[in-house]
Amino acid sequence: MAIRSFLRAWFLGAIVAGGCLVQARAVAAPGQDMVGSRDHPLVKRYQDSFIFQYSTQEYGEYGLALGKALNPSVPASGGRSMESEQMIEGKITRISYLAPAGRTTLEVFRNYQQDLADKGFNPLFSGTKEELGYMFCKRYQGIFSQIFDYNNEGSRYVAARLDRPEGRVTVAVFVTEFQMGLSGGLVPAKGQPLVQVDIVEEKPMEQRMVVVSAEKMAGGIEAEGHIALYGIYFDFNEATLKPESSPTIEQMAKFLLGAPGIKVMVVGHTDNAGGFDYNLRLSRRRAEAVVNELVARHGIEASRLTPMGASYLAPVGSNRSEEGRAKNRRVELVEM
After folding, report:
1. C-beta contacts of 304-308 below 8 A and 24+ residues apart
2. pLDDT given for residue 206 in this prediction
3. pTM above the 0.85 mark?
4. What's the fold here for domain 214-335?
């Protein structure tokens, strides 16, 4: 019996964060914090609340809501579920609190707003139930069974951001009233505030890819006519080369200087986050940034380099996982 109870708790404690299933620890007893959970140092809890769900992910992708929710089944929505959403990456902490009964979502929410403002966070988007659109609570499906799924009454949301020397932090707070639905063993009172706090500490992914040498580039071009390079780095949705790209750019220049008769296409590839046309332009701009660096800083003749963008036309991994998307974000050299 104890084993069955533990397995049920583990299953209910698994939540979806940034598109990846993240195992959370065993669920809390009613009125007590979940074992192993804790408040994030940048965001306080509302007094007398307790944590019923908690997870962390060292590096993941998070969809930050910056507009109202849409009904994807309505033609006017174009199949979209959000009016505006920004994908951000970094360490993700997700904390679910049950606030004390008898308090309103307005009171709880205003306390969180004030706490963020006191810490210097700048609001990006906020709204109440009407301003949040169609069933905004559905963004939190799967957290602790259905505890958020059908509870949109009194809902309030804010996304805020803090820029600091050690890195940008983004916080999303959603407060709503419990009305109905499976609640994972909790027994909230009708109207009791539920609080979801998501914190994303934006940071660059640990660079674990080995820099491809000029000799390996030459070998790849000779053997297969192209070679994929993962040492070229850009910020999310940007086309400006990051300083960490220098070692790979230097090896590209060494290869090209050592093979003066070769002309190559520099092809940018992206994952499928965002529309195809947008990524087509972004991948082309990134390829152009690489070409400009090779010409301006390393003296490679522009006539030998042709920048191209492929969007997500040629994936080498599944775009359904972060690991696959990371493989798809690359620059390739293709012999002309």
Report:
1. 304/256, 304/262, 304/263, 304/264, 305/263, 305/264, 305/265, 305/266, 306/263, 306/264, 306/265, 306/266, 306/336, 307/265, 307/266, 307/267, 307/268, 308/265, 308/266, 308/267, 308/268, 308/284
2. 56
3. no
4. 60s Ribosomal Protein L30; Chain: A; (3.30.1330)
